[in-house]
Amino acid sequence: MGEVFTFxxxxxxxxxxxxxxxxxxxxxxVFAIAKMATSSMQIVPRGAQNVAEVYLDGVVAMGKDxxxxxxxxxxxxxxxxxxxxxxxxxxxxxxxGFESPTSNINVTLALALIVFVYYNYEGMKNHGxxxxxxxxxxxxDMNPIVKFIMTLVMFPIEIVSHLSxxxxxxxRLFGNIKGDDLFLAVILMLAPVVAPLAPYALLTFSAxxxxxxxxxxxxxxxxxxxxxxxx
Length: 231
What we know:
Blueprint: H1 7-11, H2 15-38, H3 47-67, H4 69-74, H5 76-92, H6 105-127, H7 129-134, H8 144-190, H9 197-226
Helix pairs in contact: 2-3, 2-5, 3-9, 5-9, 6-8, 6-9, 8-9
């Protein structure tokens, strides 16, 4: 969104510089939140620690029904970190003068690739390469010749289905946040001094929703990879 003023754009108008600056800003904010939450841990949580514990409990509860509480806690560091990064990246774009890193396809694609590589790695680590890829095709008991032919047909389809998850994860997040940024740009042009509060509330809800969707899909993909025997 080079046509919209950003503070980093005032330093250097290169879009690459603006994007990297906002990614680094998001990372710093995430680390700052983590630092505040863990700097003075108490038995009875207060302040930032209390907020962080509520967030982590929420992420575990989210994954509990999808993958079970034990595995939800096991994968909590990955899911909670990605979710917090996505949430902060979504929210900073609502502040005039800043741009959401997640409104750039390169950022959302990188996040999607992290999830894609990790859940496939976990599936192969837990079940072995052969059993993991064999789980892509579930044909049950049938004639061996027919089963072989169906496997040849269905296995490539399943591979394409898994690869499409990269596109699904990245473009869903990118499209929604890019649309939100464009919507906010129009609002600010119409009311540059005091933008209506209703659009800000809507954009905040959208930022939260997109972070939630990204996290729940990560849990779903992990469940599909590690819970093969429960399919």
